[in-house]
Structure formats: C-alpha cells, structure tokens
Design a protein that fits this description.
Belongs to the major facilitator superfamily. Sugar transporter (TC 2.A.1.1) family. Glucose transporter subfamily. With 503 residues, this protein is an all-alpha fold. It has 24 helices and no strands. The protein is globular. The N and C termini lie far apart (47 Å).
Length: 503
C-alpha cells in the first residue's frame, strides 16, 4: 500500500485526482449507480411514455367496465403516477433514520436494491396483467428506493472520505443525479425506448442499476466511521480505511473518530425529535433545511417548465423539443461536474451563497424579459440564454453543494435523523411544487419567478452571513464552529454536541 506523505493530511494539499484513492473513487461510482442516479432517471424518463401509459389506463378501464375512462379521471390517475414517486421517497427518507443504524449503511443499500428490482418486475408485467395499479405501486417503490438510497448514499460517502476530499466525494451524488436525468431523457426518445412497444421496459430500466449495485457493493467494506463510532470496531474500521484510502498512516483520522466516539459514548443514535429540539444543533438544522433541503424552492423546476414555452416562441419545432431538453440536462451535468473540482478549493459557503445570489439576479432579469417578450423578435433568444445561465449557476453552486454540505454538519449520532428531516423537507417540497405549480403559473404567469427569487436571496444571505465554512475541517472542528452560533453570548454553556441533547 502507498505510504502517506506528510503534507497530504492537510486540506487542499492533495488534488482529487490522487491515484492512491482509486478504490474510493470506484466506490463513489458504485454508490452513484444505485443511489442518486436512480433519482435523476426517475424524474426525467416519466414524461416520455405519458401518452402510452394514459392509453394503457384507458384500455384496462374498458376491459373492466366496458367503457372508456373519463378524461379528467385519466388525467388524475396519470398525475398520481407522477406524484406518487415523491410520497414513496418521503417514506424512504423516513426509514433512512433507522435502517442504516440497525443494519449498517451497506446492508441498508443492499435491501434498497431489492426494492428497486421488485418495482422493475411490477413495471415489466403490468401490461401483461392489464393493471395500471402495478405501475402505481412500482412508482411508489421506486420512490422509496430513491428516498432511502439518496440519504444512505450521502452518509456512505461522507463517512468513508478523508476530510480534504469529503466535499468532492459527496458532490459526486449530484453528478449522478445529472447523469441520471440525461440518461432518462436520451433513452426516452421514441427511437430508443419511448415507443408503444417498449414503454414497460423503459419504466423498468431502474432495475438494471439496482442489480449492478447489489452485485458490486458486496466487494466494498462498511463505512469506517460506522464501524468505529457506532459499533466500536476499531480494527475493522482501520482495515476499511486502509483498503479504501490505500494508506497505513491513519492516526489523525482514527484520533478524530475516537474523539467523536468518546463524546457519544453511552448514547444511542439521536431521534428526529432530538434534532428538532436540541439547542446544540440548532444552526446545523437551519443550514440543513433552508439552503440545502429547501433547494426545491429555488425555481429550477419552474425554469424547466417555462423553457418549452420560450423555445416555442423562438420557433423551435415541437419534434425537436425533446432534444433541447437533453441539451438543458447536459448543461446542468457539465456545470455540476465543474463544481466538483471547485468545491474543495472555493468552499461550500461561497459556491452556494453566491450561487443563490446570482440565480436570484438572473431570474429577476428573466422575469423582466418575459414581461416584454413581444417588444422584439430577438427577446426570446435572450430568454433562452438566460435559462442556460440560471441552469449553469444552479449546477455550479446550489445543486452540488446542497448534496455535499449536509455530510459536514452533524456528528455520527445525529446524522441519520438529520437526513430524515432533510429528506422529508426535500420530498414533500417536491410534491407540493409538483401539485401546486400549475395553479401558481395560472395565477401569476411569469411573475411566479419572484417567489423563487425571494427564496434565492434569503438563502444567499443566510449562507454568506451566518454559516461557517466547513471545507478541510474535521467533524469535531465543524461542531465547535457551529457551537459559537448555537450558544452565542453564552460561552459558558458551550458543551459537546455529542453529549448534550437539550439546553
């Protein structure tokens, strides 16, 4: 195994391309395939078979009742097929606070893959069984897979990475979300799997990455921090670190885990109620919910909705809209990939804070330009450019950092319950935006962006003025920084967040 050079323990001294961490990078690929990739592909591919699925609903209805389904009922069933993913994801996020603690991060992901493979089987046989209810159940199970998988994916990466690479590694989850979106858009075109004959297999495609992760994850160890801090297995943790990092000199990392274990000694994993009510994690909770889990409210989904209207106004043919959507998804993926190389250099605070600020400014300008779009035939092209600008900014800042920052905020005992809260805010927010956005657009038109502008500016101010930088710091050092906010003007009350629950 490669020896650790003296300077490599310091933040930012070692570039993310270091060859000795190749197993760690390979693990991020395995985790990504069955983790956040599933989120991206499920969000993007569902639009492609919409016509075929609604036709199938009508066909099964006629078989059962002898008459076609009412159009409004068909629309309601289709809307629920789309929206039930968020409800399933919320259920998965809730269980992310118990399954990874009881069975470990690795076993939780293996169980999660079985759920996705079961959902894929339901999708494949739904047409044979003439049952659209199997599609509904399959989408719910896919949602469960996404909600649990995304949370445990982030835990796994954060607990297995050295502090100088923790931001880069956790941000790979966002890269796989973007890759999943582009993949779903590409395979969803009618020339590949978007045809009437292939739509059940398109809906079942997530079973493939689930099977791949199930097989390959067996060759990787449990997370070192879970083994040491939760299970007290110092030898197993050392072996896992040596295998993943290809290092022998692990004293600093093991000492940090020992300090964290001593602070949490004799305590069980914290509950959601503990996280919500404890003063010692108050500012971590605010950071988790406002700029990170609340990222659904930054307006990116509204932007995707308006993009097609703007493309039409610019003269783009309807049959080419899908290819432009692929271009938007590819732009986001490229921006997130670039963010992965900046996050451990520029830091989380600046990337997210200034990212939200620039998004707010750009969406203000877009709102103005949409209001005057009839004044000149060139304005729609300006609006297309502004859409791509917002997507680039989103990928460079809020999208990536919202995945990476939560891994920095909580010690081991608090982390699973914190991810339950994060997942609940994120998925219920996505459900509400999906259900209510149409009504908001109908009532406000292009001025709906002003709601998202308010959120972007508020999150920017919160990040830039209150949240301490976390790059290159150990979990205990980050906790000490947040304690200065949690116990402001009460220095004598600063205690270990690993011990105190309420103050």
């Amino acid at each position: 195994m490669a020896d650790l050079h003296p300077g490599s323990q310091h933040p930012n001294m070692e570039p993310p391309s270091s060859k000795k961490h190749w197993r760690l990078y390979l693990m991020s690929v395995v985790l990504g395939i069955g983790g956040s990739f599933q989120y991206g592909i499920q969000v993007s591919l569902i639009a492609s078979p919409a016509v075929h699925v609604r036709s199938f609903v009508n066909y099964t209805w006629m078989l059962r009742y002898g008459s076609p389904v009412d159009e409004s009922a068909n629309q309601l069933i289709w809307s629920f097929i789309v929206a039930v993913l968020s409800l399933g994801a919320w259920a998965g996020a809730v269980h992310s606070g118990s399954l990874p603690v009881t069975y470990g991060r690795k076993k939780a992901l293996l169980i999660n893959n079985v759920v996705a493979m079961a959902a894929a089987l339901l999708m494949v046989f739904s047409r044979t069984a003439n049952s659209f209810e199997m599609i509904l159940l399959g989408r719910f199970l896919y949602g469960y897979n996404v909600g649990l998988g995304l949370s445990v994916h982030l835990m796994y990466l954060g607990e297995s990475s050295p502090k100088e690479l923790r931001g880069f590694m956790t941000l790979t989850s966002s890269i796989f979300i973007g890759l999943g979106k582009v993949t779903g858009q590409i395979i969803g075109i009618k020339e590949i799997m978007g045809s009437e004959e292939m739509w059940p297999y398109l809906l079942a495609i997530s079973g493939v990455p689930a099977a791949l992760q199930f097989v390959t994850l067996l060759f990787f160890p449990e997370t070192p921090r879970y083994l040491y801090i939760d299970k007290g297995d110092a030898d197993g943790s050392r072996k896992a670190l040596q295998w993943l990092w290809q290092e022998d000199n692990l004293k600093l990392e093991l000492d940090d885990m020992q300090k964290e274990r001593e602070r949490a000694l004799g305590e069980k994993a914290k509950t959601v109620k503990d996280v919500l009510t404890s003063r010692c994690v108050r500012w971590q909770l605010l950071t988790l919910t406002i700029p990170c889990a609340g990222v659904q409210f930054c307006g990116i989904n509204a932007l995707y909705f308006y993009a097609f209207d703007i493309f039409r106004e610019s003269g783009v043919p309807e049959n080419q809209m899908h290819y432009l959507a692929i271009g938007i998804g590819a732009t986001e993926l490229i921006a997130i990939t670039l963010c992965s190389f900046l996050i451990d250099r520029a830091g989380r605070k600046k990337l997210m804070g200034y990212g939200y600020l620039l998004m707010g400014v750009t969406m203000c300008l877009l709102t103005v330009m949409l209001s005057i779009k009839d004044l000149s035939p060139h304005i729609p092209y300006v609006n297309i450019a502004l859409i791509f600008c917002v997507i680039c900014i989103y990928g460079l800042g809020p999208s990536g950092v919202s995945m990476a920052l939560p891994a920095d905020l909580f010690l081991q005992a608090w982390r699973p319950s914190a991810y339950v809260i994060s997942g609940t805010v994120n998925w219920l927010g996505m459900f509400l935006v999906g259900m209510l956005f149409g009504y908001v657009v109908e009532g406000l038109g292009q001025f709906c962006f002003l709601i998202f502008v308010a959120y972007s500016f508020s999150s920017a101010a919160f990040m830039l003025y209150f949240v301490p930088e976390t790059k290159g710091k150990t979990m205990v050092e980050i906790m000490d920084d947040f304690n200065k906010l949690n116990y402001k003007n009460r220095e004598s009350d600063i205690e270990s967040t690993g011990i105190s629950t309420k103050l």
